[in-house]
Amino acid sequence: MIQLSNINKIFNPGTVNEVKALTNINLEVNNGDFVTIIGTNGSGKTTLLNLITGSFFPDTGIISIDGKNVTREKDYKRARYISRVFQNPYSGSAPKMTIAENLLIAYTRNGHRNPVISLTSKLRNYFREQVAMLEMQLEDRLDNVVGMLSGGQRQAVTLLMAVLKSPKVLLLDEHTAALDPKSAAQVISLTKRMIEEKNLTAIMITHSMQQALDLGNRTLMLYKGEIIDDISANEKRRLTVDDLLGKFSDLRKREKLTEDVLTKLKSEYI
User: Fold this and answer.
1) Is the whole model's pTM more than 0.90, yes or no?
2) Which one of 94, 146, 157, 217 is least enclosed by Cβ atoms within 10 Å?
3) In a domain, 47, yes or no
4) How confident is the model over 64-83, as pLDDT tens digits?
5) Residue 128: exposure state from Cβ atoms within 10 A (0-12, 13-18, ≥19)
6) Strand order from edge to edge, sheet including 34-39
7) pLDDT greater than 80 at residue 270
8) Is the dihedral of CA 258, 9, 208, 88 positive or negative?
């Protein structure tokens, strides 16, 4: 479903602020894969998602989605088949519109360029059924504006909007990091269920090593813009959080990382 070949991305090249964000990235994500990504801040995780969505283009390399070369395709065109949920619960919905109106916008994606937007009674009933599955008692509040919801409720609605039309690719950019633990657990549970039920191809960035191990069938470890490990489902079942930290410790031995980096890793992921 996703293929990245020899991807390189440098920001501010040739200046004192030059950053090698991604280096020689080669990645294949099969249809139905659920890939989790971990790595320290600045390791290139969000840059990788931005390249897949077309927020900017790679300096070199080829990006293919479902067999189509989309390397230079604009982000608004890729939005027809790629959905993304951001870390900020307020980034994926229209705060002054109701739950039903937000869902209607999501429902009309992939349709005609200028659709006739009409919230029929049939659609309202369908949206009510979908919202009821969130188990957040929002099905009788379809006319409430989204901006009045809690962060967890809003993120759940945003997630529902993202999967409503079963996109080819679902990208989750630390989508529970800004939530309280209870809300985060609810949204993670919904995420797992929706991906499994719709058999979606998904990539999720997380700062929780436990989430990385518990979710999905693959885990990528990024460091300094490179994929340093691609952990299979079988291996994930045998690993613990300490094992993942041990992998970074082994990296320290090979690259002579400082103790400060290891301390930072532990603070970010435990």
Assistant:
1) no
2) 94
3) yes
4) 999 999 999 999 999 999 99
5) middle
6) 82-85, 169-173, 201-205, 34-39, 218-223, 226-232
7) no
8) positive
